[in-house]
Structure formats: structure tokens, C-alpha cells
Fold:
Amino acid sequence: MRLSDANLAHLPVTFTQPAYDREARGIGIVHFGIGAFHRAHQAVYTDDAMAAESGDWRILGVSLRSGNVRDQMRPQDGLYALVEQSADGSKVRVIGSVADVIVAAEERDRLIAALANPATHIVSFTITEKGYCRAPDGAIDFDVADSGSVYAYLAEAFRQRRDVGSPGLTLMSCDNLAGNGAQLKRLMIAYLHRHAPELVSWFEEKCACPSTMVDRIVPATTEADRTSIAALTGLRDDAMVVTEPFSQWVIEDNFAGPRPAWEKHGALMTSNVHAYEEAKLRLLNGAHSALAYLGLKRGHEFVHQAIADPELAALANTLMRDEATGSLEPAPGQDLNAYADALIARFQNPALNHRLIQIAMDGSQKIPQRWLATLASQQAKGKQCPSILTAISGWLCHIRGDNGFVDDPLAEVLKATWAQAGAHGISAALFSAGGIMASGWVPSEAELLEIERQL
Ligand code: NAI
Ligand code: CS2
Structure:
């Protein structure tokens, strides 16, 4: 038996179920990239908001790549279990905020109609760092953007909304990018300038792109997870997600129209997302990536194993408490040392099997905001970051293929650079001026040698 509206009654009473009439609620949000994170984060805040008050805030999920999630969720009427796991055990609830999932290329008309529908107020994204089609210098890469990215669908919807006088949309990025809202706006305008210049002023006037800081650790779901939930519920659930008890969402209070009252359910609305975002990207994600590459190098598989390794624990602590913290201007009341304590505890969660190889993915898209920003800021203060240099050497080993397949949009370029530069030139070839990873950080000769000494 499969989880579905009809089978909800079969669930143990201890499992929280959607506390509203799902069929009576309309779609108000279109979400691109309905992966595991969205289902454990934004969809949960939205489920809470709909349980507490009226409002048509159901979510139409959109996949730009495969039909997997559609095929997992549609037979379940969009329902799925959220399993919070910690050393104290697991807590299960069923989420009802997702109405359906479509594959963009297969249901283009339905997608455009949903985006153009005046009842749709918010378009949100968790399409990964690479989904925004940025070139290494941050500009839009039209080779990628013109092959089935989000931008074309949005442009068509803008046209239809403008032509009938419908209100603008809020485009809300929920990806781990620095200034994610501002980046999305800049890239969308660049796309419109090339493909629909007549829509630029409408977009700028009518639409909003708030930045957000998003945080909840959500490992990719495994077959073992699905087997255990089926044993627990007696129902098959292919769309379930596993996560930790902790969740945080900081949202810039900049919307083009109405929105769910997420702030009544734990989200923080603020005019200053920046400080939260930078701290999270440089401390949590910075340490995550270091643990990923160095942990794999030392034979670990999961985050909780890597953080239990005394050498890596020491490195993660130095990276967070000295190097990253030293590069930041904390917001009033933001205690970064206490934050680092909490992050270590979250990394240690023994019940969360977060694979290092999952975090190791897309390093070329992640390292700039996780490490290079810290290096540049500390360099401006005349300081070095030995832990990040060690982590960089771990990444270089990873892109060399030491851990097997390299899942990265720039994998071929990185591999070719390795082949050309070799161990005594690779870091300069990548990070020095003109390199594909060049940034505000200008590595010194000593730093380059230190990285290569550790390869
Ligand atoms: P996932 O692998 O479950 O889902 C990724 C989604 O992005 C899928 O829907 C996929 O189709 C789509 N996607 C991938 N590459 C794309 C591309 N080039 N263009 C358009 N769509 C693309 O991953 P998950 O866990 O949902 O993470 C997605 C993003 O969410 C992360 O990259 C990160 O920015 C953010 N995030 C994830 C957290 C986590 O712990 N998993 C926590 C905080 C943020
Ligand atoms: C991880 C993040 O895969 C990764 O890159 O570092 O997804 C991390 O789990 C989240 O940002 C936590 O909020």
C-alpha cells in the first residue's frame, strides 16, 4: 500500500498529518528544483502556515531535469513523510503543502499557465548553485542559460502577466549562494536584456527578489530510509525525506505581493540577511566542504565520522572559530562562537548519515562563497588561513579523481588543468589571476607552495 490521501487513515496516530483541507487550497507558489531540501524546509514552513490560517499557498513543484520526483510524488497525491532524526530517536510527520510536481519540458504549457496565473505570487528555487547558469566570473553563461534553464519560462510568464496587467512575482532563491536574491535579479535582467529587452522595466518595477539564508541539513534519501519508513508506517513512501531537528530560515522582507506568514512558524523576516548568510556560508558550509574533501581523503564516508576524527575536528574548529569568524562583522547579538558550538553538535548527529561525497559535489560552484571570500577578507587584514589552505589541497585531490567520479559542471576543465599544470602548478593555475577560480584572494607564493606540499 502506498501513502496517499486515501490511505492517510492507515498511519499511526502519532504521526502528524496536514491540518487543513488540502483540496480546498489553491496553488500560490511555483517551486523550481523540488529536491530533498525544499521538501524538508520551505514546504514545511508553508505546511505550518496553511495549518494555522487560510490562504492558497499550495506548491506546484517543477523539475527541470528528470521525472524522478514527479514519479515519486504524484502517485502519493504530493504527500510525503518528513523524518527528523537525532540521537534521541526519530519524529515523523506527513507534509501536505505540495499539490503536484511537473517536468518543465514535458508540461511546458501547464508550467507557463501556472507562472502566469495571477493567483501565483511566489516563484522559489532550490536548483543548486550551478542552476543559475553563472560563468566563473559570475556573469550569465548563455550557453547554459539558453538550454532549458529557468529564465526562459520566467520570461514568457512575465510577458503574459504584463500583457494582461497582472501583478508582478516574487522570485525567491533558497540556494546556498551569497546574496542569492541579488544574484538572481542580476542574472534575470541580463537574460531579459538579450532575449526580451521590452520586459526589463516591467520586471524591475513589478517583481522582487528577496535574499534568503536557508539552513537545515538534509542528506539524499536512500533506499534504506524508504525501507525503514515503510516498516514504521506500513505504507510505501518513495518521496520521504530525512533531516535533523534544527531548521533556520532568514528572509529579506522584500516581496512583490502577498506571502504565507512564515514568520509565525519560525522564519525570521529582516532587512539584513547578509550577516546571517555570510556566517552560515563561511562557518557551516565552509567546514562542511573541508570535512568532505579531507574526510574522503582519510577514508570516512559520513560527516559524523569525519567530525569524530580528532585532526579534522581540530581543523574544522580553527576554520570556523578563527578563520571564518575573523573574516566577518557579526550582526548585533550574533555570537559566532556559540554558533560554532551548535554546528559541531549538528555535525556530530549520529543518526544523520550525510555522505561526504554529496557535499563534495559541485566544488567549483561552492568554494568561492565558502572559502575564497574568507581568504580574501583575511588577506585584506594581513592574515592567512592555514585550515582553508589544507582544505583546498583536499579539493585538488578530489578533482584529480582520487575519490572517483568528479560531479562538477567544470570537471572536464579542472581535469585538463590538472593534466597541464601538474602538482607543482595546479594551485597557481586555478587560483592566481586569470585562473578559473580566481577571486578577491590573491594567493602568495608561500600559500601556493603550502597547498601543494599537502597534495
Ligand atoms: P537534490 O539533489 O535533492 O535536488 C536538487 C534539485 O535541483 C533537483 O530538483 C534537481 O533537478 C535540481 N537541479 C540540479 N541541477 C540543476 C540545474 N543545473 N538546473 C536546474 N535544476 C537543477 O538536492 P537538495 O538537497 O534538494 O539541495 C538543493 C540545493 O538546496 C543545494 O544545492 C543548496 O543550494 C540548497 N540547500 C540544500 C541543503 C541540504 O542540506 N540538502 C541545505 C541548505 C540549502
Ligand atoms: C552542504 C549543504 O551539500 C552541501 O554542500 O554543505 O547542503 C548543507 O547541508 C546545508 O547548507 C545546510 O543547511
